[in-house]
Amino acid sequence: MSASVTTPAVGTTTATSDPASTGAAPYRLSPEHRRVFVGLMLGMLVASVSQTIVGPAMPRIVAELGGIDHYSWVATAAMLVSACTVPVVGKLSDIFGRRGFYLAGIIVFIVGSLICGFSQNFWMLVAGRAVQGLGMGTLMPLSQTIIGDIIPPRQRGKYQGLMGAVFGVTSVAGPLAGGVITDHLGWRYLFFVAVPIGLVAFVVIGRFLHLEHTAREVTIDYAGIATLTVALTSLLLATSLGGTSWAWGSAESIGLYALGVVALISFIAIERRAVEPVIPLRLFSSKVFSMANIAAFGVSMVMFGAIIYIPVFAQGVIGVDATNSGLILMPLMVGFIGLGIITGQLITRTGRYLPFMITGVLVMALGIFLLTRLDHTATQTQLTVAMTVLGLGLGMAMQQYALVVQNDVPRRDLGVATATVQFFRNVGSTVGIAVFGTIMTSGLADRIAGHLPAGAQQQMGDGGVSIGSVLDPSALSKLPPVVADAVRQGLAESLHNVFLIGLPILAVVLVATALIPAKPLRETLDHPSEAVSDRAE
């Protein structure tokens, strides 16, 4: 018999239809698994907040430790290691079980936090962030996967909505907390604060998470892991640093892209022959799996592009105070959290997900369209409306792609399938930020100059207007009014192009989402194919 058959029941009654219509008791998590869910939320909290809490303190960190020329490596190190870890841990957890990996991920993350907090130089901090990335790449996909282990798909939507709310809260609370902690305790406590939360999560998960698992003898796909790591590192590094640290046409960028493509082709060839591939290519034969990952990639591009460049518009064009930058995205995140929770409840109640996902993509497109209508005369109210609409659409759609994939795959592939969705999200965010950043900076100086009256160029000074001054309202306020207005107009035009590119991306997302077959959400943890296999045994 397979391991899934011997897994204990999770809740009380698992009805096969709406409990309200059958008189059956509503689904409830058992007390033990309720505690597990709390532990998973804490694990997600420390992993996700680490991505946002450091931003406000970076100028102070660099001032103390040095490393201004390699500023971006603090974020890049964690991102690269996390992206490489996600698919590998997802596969290994399918083979060896999840509990040990999740607990190890918490410990690794805590160790990385301590290294960062005690850093004596810039590169020690980068090393600590890399260790944190290893923990993040373990905790984030396995949190979603373990939910799939203990909660049937029909009931899973509302719990995944709550998990998504953790990300939304940390996106807003992280920068705010980062500023407060840095000002009152010092930047090192940004990393120390994660330690007690991580320890509580470790104790809760260690005490209450007990999943049945039957180990099987396998051949680890070391060649696949190696080539995948080289491919991801090369491609993501070139994408992250291209156009900033390196020119897109530089030898470094071209060389890394070439290495990444060769490694990726080698990886695919290896996976086609591997006995236990790290990412089974057969999963992509499922339209649900392939379309959901394409859509998740595009949604992540748009979401992270918005998270990065909406504050740029607010500060550089409208003139919102940079000290309150953590609050700029509040309307977007409130919509994301609220509709995420409500949509999860509705999916659990109705058993239908596709109408909500398609509607969510359309609402996202409306939000992006409203952003494209903003110019240098836009008000904060207009920006708030556009952000809120975008957040509502994200809340309806984003979390559901993991749900439909988990509903489609057998439990033996649950870890790698969930990790693949997380992987496509990670890569989408990296690509989105890089692409949108290139669009914003390309031609920005010419656009600003195009709005200057004859002779006004001299008022900008010998060095012109830097990107830093464009994004700093206090610096803009010191410029002559005619120059400041030209800066706002030029930046607004560049950001118009940034937002505009989101519309064709969402068109692809809409098509991919519409092509996802609408399958009934299972009321049990077992996949039908596994039930047939068990009866045959």
Task: Give a verbal description of the structure.
- There is one protein chain.
- The chain has 537 residues and is an all-alpha fold.
- The protein has helices at 19-22, 31-49, 58-65, 73-96, 99-117, 122-150, 153-184, 189-192, 194-208, 222-241, 251-273, 287-318, 330-350, 354-372, 380-397, 400-408, 414-441, 444-450, 467-470, 473-477, 481-500, 502-514, 528-536.
- The radius of gyration is 24 Å and the shape is globular.
- It starts with 18 loop residues before the first helix and ends with a helix.
- Mean pLDDT is 82; it is low at 1-24 and 531-537.
Domains, number:
3
Overall average residue pLDDT: 82
Name of the CATH class of the largest domain = Mainly Alpha
In CATH, the architecture of the largest domain is: Up-down Bundle
Percent helix range: over 70%
The gyration radius over C-alpha positions equals 24 Å
**Beta-strand level of the residues, as a percent range?**
under 5%
- Which runs of at least 5 residues are low in confidence (pLDDT < 50)? 1-24, 531-537
Return the string of H and E elements: HHHHHHHHHHHHHHHHHHHHHHH
Q: Alpha-carbon distance between the termini?
A: 7 Å
Number of helices: 23
Helix vs. strand class: mainly alpha
CATH fold name of the largest domain: Growth Hormone, Chain: A
Subcellular location: Cell membrane
Transmembrane segments: 36-58, 70-89, 101-124, 130-150, 162-181, 187-210, 222-248, 254-270, 291-314, 326-346, 353-371, 383-404, 498-518
Domain Major facilitator superfamily (MFS) profile: 36-520
GO molecular function, one term: transmembrane transporter activity
